Amino acid sequence: MNRIKQQFLAGPYLVWIIGFILLPLAMILYYAFFNEDGTFTLDNIASIADPVNLKAMGLSLELGVICTLICLLLAYPLAMILNNLHIKNQSFVVFVFMLPMWMNFMLRILAWKLLLNKNGVLNTILLSLGMERITILNTPAAVVFGMVYDYLPFMILPIYNAMARIKKDYIEAAHDLGANNFTVFFKIIVPLTVSGIISGIVMVFVPALTSFAISELLGGGKVLLIGNIIEESFMQGMQWNIGSGLSFVLMVFVMISMAITNAFDKDGEGGTAVW
Amino acid sequence: MKKKIIASGLISALAIACLSACNQGGQTQEQQSRGNTLTVLNYGKYIDEDALRQFENETGIDVKYEEYESPEEMYTKYKAGAIDYDVICTSEYIIQKLISEGEVLEQDYAALENYGNLDKDILDLAKSYDPNNTYTVPYFYGTLGICYDTTKVTEEEASSWDCLWDKSHANEIIMMNSVRDSFVPALKKLEYSLNTTDEAKLQEALALLDEQFPIVYAYFVDEIGDEMISGNAHVALVYSGEAAYAMDYNEDLAYCVPKEGSNLWIDSWFIPKTCKNEEAALKFIDFLCREDIGMANFDYVYYASPLTPVVEALDEEIRSNEAIIPSKESLEKCEVFTAISDEAAAYLNHLWQVLKSQL
Questions:
Q1: Is B68 helix (H, G, I), strand (E, B) or coil?
Q2: Under CATH, which number does the domain B142-263+338-356 receive?
Q3: A185, B1, B63, B298: which has the fewest C-beta neighbours closer than 10 Å?
Q4: What ipTM does the predicted assembly reach?
Q5: Cross-chain residue pair A140–B359, CB shorter than 8 Å
Q6: Does A58 reach chain B within 8 Å, measured CB to CB?
Q7: Closest residue of B to A62, CA-based?
Q8: Do B356 and A234 touch (CB under 8 A)?
Q9: What is the pLDDT along chain A (275 residues), one digit of tens a residue?
Q10: Within 13 Å, how many C-alpha atoms sit on residue B272's CB side?
């Protein structure tokens, strides 16, 4: 009886999952593997080999990797500092870090666009201090900046969670046995936070790889990522089949990243458990 | 009105396609409950709402009014077939596509009471996509040109597309992030037609755009007006309506249609095959051609009206503003986009991506 009730409660979610996840996925697969007149073809998938698409894919991977690395370098020390803070209400500090995420990311990126603009806030301050204007906007650097800004919390949280779970006893024991801070860090802390690092990497890398709005807004249309190519094939070129083919290729990349996480994170101890 | 959605693009496209697939069953019910109503589909913010109410009061016809953002969205909405539209307004190249697909009804528009108000020159230009003026009735029109900062660029410089290639404006040039629009300056510099599908000619145009790429500040869609207002660039490729908007906020800005020629866009009304109430649709189009209604709509939209009495009633200042009402000389130099084949469009799109994948 109880089971039926539970299944009944899952009903709305089932409708949601079918209508907005499975159905669109099926449609993408259909468009990807069939051409306009409905015959089976692999041309849409093969279009990833087109030099333009390859280049965009390469740039997406490159910016994705750079963004992930920067996030990792920023987030790891930050998570350590957060973890070692001896404040009563540590969750409040974490909450403060999460706060910006509650605002729509598009708005935050638009705000950065205004800040970094030629006559924007940043340049006005620099000029009034007698310094040179910086023109970062509409370059790949600006896109990486936007990605890092947007996805950093996704790196901090899982690492912080993994770190908070390390028992202080282990560290004390290591010290008692004569390990210096350096050894403790590499032999205890890092190995015990690997699952957090891996889920952080995936949670940053996947959205960075597939993003198109950030490159559109901060790249000024001059930075063409694979996401932008897909968006343009749908919205401008009316080439739904090629767009779907490329989406499929991108999905394969995403799935590979997911598989890597699962391999490292078998026990499900990573940060994803928090979400 | 060439607005395009940047964000949530994929999602909305999918959602529309998905919903339309589910919706087709509800069609018959819709038809039965239809009395003397008229279903209108138009660009967002593209009509004075009071005019709609006036039409309802005068004719007793109920107007069901729907809006869309981009021509592509309209095409998807119409093709989905969930709603039978009676009368639709959109851009010429999409109408041409629909005409070629046999989706547009032919009408004797010349018999409409207020048809005489329409400017003969505009009707002639419209013949490039509607040879006998029997498929469409022009609603608003405008040009593509250069919006420039008069403190940085002289009027003479801006009178030629060359200024978009001028290295002294490096990093101060804004182009449009849409394929056909951004090819206009290159094609016109080479004295080719905007509608050429000759691959060699398009390659030449691409070479020009390639040369321009390093000095372009950005390729924007909707934000060009705002970028010009805040002085982030010296020159920009824009549609006249966007330029008029920008000039309203920044008096240093000016607009001109370069001497090599440019694109003229015409948004028109047409009656699609799905129309269930042709009489009401014709009444509606006739109503929009009336002088007082045309004036109300002009005041609201602020694009060039093809209705001669409306233009004649305007102040000299507005009439001579090239960004609002294109001059006769500009019109002569301009060409209307015609729909190109799917293959040609795909080729053009490919060139565009080649251009933009340089970084």
A1: strand
A2: 3.40.190.10
A3: A185
A4: 0.78
A5: yes
A6: no
A7: B359
A8: no
A9: 567 777 778 888 889 999 999 999 999 999 999 988 888 988 889 888 889 999 999 999 999 999 999 999 999 999 988 888 777 777 787 788 778 888 888 899 989 988 888 888 888 899 899 888 888 889 999 999 999 999 999 999 899 989 988 888 998 999 999 989 889 889 889 999 998 999 899 899 999 999 999 998 899 889 999 999 998 888 776 788 889 999 999 999 888 888 877 777 655 544 444 33
A10: 26
